[in-house]
Amino acid sequence: MAILDPIKAEILAVRMIPNVSKDLAESLNLRPDQRSIGMFTCTIDDVGYTAIDEATKKAEVEVVYAKSFYAGAAHASGPLSGEFIGILAGPDPAEIKAGLSAAAQTVNEEAFFYAADPEGKIAFYAHTISRTGSYLSKVAGIKEGDALAYLIAPPLESVFGVDAALKAADVRMAVWYGPPGETNFGGGLLTGSQSACKAATEAFRDAVLGVARSPKDYAI
C-alpha cells in the first residue's frame, strides 16, 4: 500500500422488509406512510453514514436508524456486523431498493478512507459532500443541500487536522466529534460553500499526512 491509497469499505449484509411489523414500526417511530424498511451493515462507519445520506437524495426514503458499533470492525460481534448499521424507511419496496442501491454505489465507488502512511496503519477520511441529503443535514444542523467537509482521523490527527481545516477556508464547525468516538477516531463536520469545504478537506488531509510523516515533531 502507498500513501493516499484508498481504503474501501465493504457492505457485509443487506435486507429489505416490504411490510414491517406493527411493533417494530412503533419502535422505529415510523410514520403510517413508511411501510417498508431496508437495512445494511458495512465495515467503515463514516462511509456508511455518507452512503445512507446519499440514499435520501436518490429515493423517497428517510434514515430512521444509524449507529456505529463500539471498537470498530476489528472487534465486531460477528462476520456480518462490521462497524455500522443503517436502516431506511420508505413507502414501498421499490423506494427502499433504490435507496439501498444508491448507498451501495457510494460505498463501492465514491466514499473512501485513505492511507496516511506506507503501511496503511494510519487511516483518515477527508470527504467533501457537495450537497447533503436529509440525514446529514439534520445531524449537522444545516439546510438540506448545503455542502459539508466530512473529516475523520485517529485522535491526535483529528484535532490537529480540524484546526488546520478551519483556518484554511471560510468554513465553520457544524459538529465536532471529540476523540474517542465509538470506533476510537475523532473529527468533525464543517460547512461552507462547496469550494470552501473542498479547501478545508484538502487542508485536513495535508495536516494528517504531516503528522504521519513526522509524528514527534512540534508543529511550527
TrEMBL record:
PROSITE patterns: BMC_CP (PS51931). It comes from the Bacteria. The keyword Amino-acid biosynthesis does not apply. Residues 1-111, 112-215 form the BMC circularly permuted domain. Keywords: Bacterial microcompartment. Its main location: other. It is found in: Bacterial microcompartment. One of its GO terms (molecular function) is structural molecule activity. Pfam families: BMC. GO terms for cellular component: bacterial microcompartment. NCBIfam families: microcomp_EutL, PRK15405.1. This is Microcompartments protein. It comes from Thermincola potens (strain JR).
